[in-house]
Design a protein that fits this description.
With about 400 residues, the chain is an alpha/beta fold. It folds into 2 domains: about 20-145 and about 280-370, Rossmann fold, CATH 3.40.50; about 145-265, Response regulator (Rossmann fold, 3-Layer(aba) Sandwich). About 40% of the residues lie in helices and about 20% in strands. Strand 3, helix 3 and strand 4 form a beta-alpha-beta unit. The chain is elongated, with a radius of gyration of 21 Å.
Length: about 400
């Protein structure tokens, strides 16, 4: 039996596996700048694996579907190290994750693409990912690109009557990418960007930066991770009165933002995120399963994380083996129409259809997961404001 590696904050979280198990790597950012966002996403991945194993496991022999977890820390260097060990030491069949765009891009370029291993990210949304793989068909994601979210955020700002805005973005692939889309879209819609500045993460104070940006507008578009500068920027802005209105995206959507800033101070803050359509049958199926397992179904990227893990199990089942080279085509086959619709938790149903030679079409917790030529999916976005001490979202139409 392989030894189980203890879960430390900076250590790898690896499941003890038998040689016959189907092992999938899951490099989640359990430490780093957004651990509160990632924690329920981890639960969703594990829930998908539980559903697979409770319904007969993989293939006719009932092999166990095992998640081998590693900590990518939302950091490119850590992600390369984590995925290298997953692929070369744990010999995983495929990668479900990472979480952050910079980590996803770095490990795919350096590790998973050269190794011929499919990556299916649970939440990486940078537009840079769309064309990064040069025709290898090895990089997919279950959350929509920020090429769409940046436009949705610009439309939301204009709808709110915001016609001038300062922009501050963390100097990383995710935040820089969505900031660029937002700036271009907002300008094309008639808005004026009064300043557009990168900031370095983890500074003790951003008072000088917010004072300079605040000279031109009362509105700030903030693209940052809450745990590596975002909260500090907001606090400094509120303390100095530099801005009264804040908009931004996923990286700020954590309870810690509310706890640190104070709900009473966030009345002028709206942040967008990728979201499932809560009215669909696919989400309803997932919600019931998630609530039974104490998994917060509506939290950011939780549905996407479940979908990624469940789809990977379906793809491997479709391939008929854990052969890495067969995963890409199988993933497209089970995700895209045509085929009998499969919803969250319906692994036994899907397995029976595939065994009989039929086709399936996974209609996920986050909505249909039909991949385009670049491995991207469409999706929905929500606008989130603080209500009764928590973030509450409404789908952007």
């Amino acid at each position: 039996m392989k030894p189980q590696i203890a879960a430390g904050l900076a250590c790898y979280l690896m499941a003890t596996t038998a040689s016959a198990d189907v092992v999938v790597g899951n490099p989640m950012a359990v430490t780093g700048p957004i651990p509160d966002l990632v924690a329920p996403m981890v639960l969703a991945v594990d829930l998908a694996a539980e559903h697979v194993n409770a319904q007969g496991g993989m293939f006719a022999s009932g092999e166990k579907f095992v998640i081998a977890r590693a900590d990518s820390q939302c950091d490119p260097v850590a992600a390369v190290d984590a995925v290298t060990k997953l692929i070369n030491v744990s010999m995983v069949t495929a990668i479900v994750g990472p979480v952050c765009s910079g980590a996803t891009i770095a490990q795919a370029d350096s590790v998973s693409i050269p190794a011929g291993v499919v990556t299916l990210s649970v939440s990486a949304s940078s537009p840079m990912i769309t064309n990064m793989e040069s025709g290898t068909d090895l990089v997919f994601r279950s959350a929509a690109s920020d090429a769409y979210q940046g436009v949705a955020l610009a439309e939301l700002a204009i709808a709110k009557g915001i016609m001038d805005i300062a922009v501050s973005y963390a100097n990383d692939d995710y935040n820089a990418g969505i900031a660029e889309v937002f700036v271009n879209s907002f300008s094309e819609m008639g808005g004026t960007v009064t300043s557009n500045e990168a900031h370095e993460p983890n500074k003790a104070s951003y008072r000088a930066e917010v004072a300079t940006m605040g000279a031109g507008s009362d509105n700030l578009a903030l693209f940052a991770y809450y745990g590596s500068g975002g909260i500090t920027i907001m606090r400094n802005a509120l303390e100095t009165g530099a801005f009264s209105t804040f908009i931004g995206a996923d990286g700020m959507l954590a309870q810690e933002t509310i706890d640190q800033i104070g709900a009473e101070n966030l009345g002028g803050a709206t942040f967008t995120t990728s979201t499932p359509n809560l009215t669909t049958a696919g989400y309803a199926a997932f919600k019931g399963l998630a609530e039974a397992a104490d998994v917060p179904s509506a939290s950011p990227f939780v549905a996407n994380s479940y979908d990624a893990a469940f789809m990977m199990a379906l793809a491997i089942e479709k391939a008929g083996s854990a052969d890495r080279s067969a995963i890409s085509a199988s993933l497209r086959s089970i995700a895209n129409a045509p085929g009998e619709v499969i919803q969250a938790g319906e692994f036994a149903k899907a397995k029976a259809i595939l065994a009989a030679g039929g086709d399936i079409h996974y209609n996920g917790a986050a909505g249909p997961q039909d991949f385009d030529a670049n491995g991207d999916v469409l999706g929905y976005f929500s606008a989130n404001v603080v209500k009764d001490g928590v973030w509450e979202g409404t789908i952007i139409e």
